[in-house]
Automatic annotation (TrEMBL):
Similarity remark: Belongs to the AzlC family.
A Pfam family: AzlC
Transmembrane segments: 21-41, 61-87, 139-163, 175-205, 211-231
Protein name, per record: AzlC family ABC transporter permease
Keywords for the protein's UniProt record, in alphabetical order: Cell membrane, Membrane, Transmembrane, Transmembrane helix, Transport
UniProt topology in membrane: Multi-pass membrane protein
Gene Ontology BP, a term: L-valine transmembrane transport
GO cellular component, one term: plasma membrane
PANTHER family, per the entry: INNER MEMBRANE PROTEIN YGAZ
């Protein structure tokens, strides 16, 4: 009975999720404005840009798709390239799966549609401190909806006012998203295996950056995952723990 009384209410969890993702929202704001600005100077209509943000809700994929469309790439190329770039969401989903597996399908589909890099970082940081199933979905939902609305607002701002600032994308505002990703990654580096995986993926992403269709990014991520899995084997973990104890 005490556990039930002390459980946070859904509305409070929702508000906590929306609050905790505010720093990520600040980092995404310039990114959204730049996307909207690029749409106004490209082959798409303004409403196409807003529809893309509403339906796709994936910043990096939207930028890549916009560039490919401007270069008259085929639909198959646009679809395949954005699919490859967004395959990282499979890793995010696998990580969060134990915490949402008990939810009905309608909840899992909704949360999956709202999953982004920033939402994953905030939700996982919250859920990993409790056993799977102990926390409801409302924190995740609050973070996801807040980021979704934030992306729509700043996309619209870029679409409406981007034409007045034609060189906006050259001002270096996109570094805000780089800083956001750094803020996402650094708090997760709490063990040697995490650091090794991050360093491997980062170095190989630079080495493979000239690969077509962003395949280098996928290869770098795969290599990082392999390193992390190998270093997470129970035998190695116990050996390191014994070494620390001695």
């Amino acid at each position: 009975m005490e556990k039930i009384l002390n459980a946070p209410r859904p509305l409070n969890e929702f508000a906590d999720g929306a609050r905790d993702i505010i720093p990520m929202m600040v980092g995404a704001a310039p990114f959204g404005v730049i996307f909207g600005t690029l749409v106004t100077s490209g082959p798409l209509h303004v409403w196409h840009g807003q529809l893309m943000s509403l339906a796709v809700f994936a910043g990096s994929a939207q930028f890549i798709a916009l560039g490919l469309i401007a270069s008259h790439a085929s639909f198959a190329v646009v679809l395949a390239t954005t699919l490859i770039v967004n395959l990282r969401h499979v890793l995010y989903s696998a990580t969060l799966a134990p915490y949402v597996a008990h939810l009905p399908a309608r909840w899992r589909w909704t949360l999956g549609a709202l999953l982004t890099d920033e939402v994953f970082a905030v939700a996982y940081s919250h859920y990993r401190h409790k056993p799977p199933g102990a926390i409801g979905p409302h924190y995740f939902l609050g973070a996801g909806i807040a980021m979704y609305l934030n992306w729509q607002v700043w996309t619209l701002a870029g679409l409406l006012f981007g034409a007045a600032f034609p060189r906006l994308q050259s001002l270096g505002l996109d570094f805000a998203m780089v800083a956001t990703f750094i803020a996402i990654v650094i708090p997760q580096l709490v063990a040697v295996r995490f650091v090794a995986a991050a360093v491997t993926a980062g170095v190989l992403a630079c080495v493979f950056q000239d690969w077509p269709y962003k395949l280098g990014l996928l290869a770098a991520v795969a290599a990082g995952v392999v390193v992390g899995v190998v270093l997470s084997r129970p035998g190695l973990v116990r050996s390191r723990a014994a070494g620390v104890t001695q």
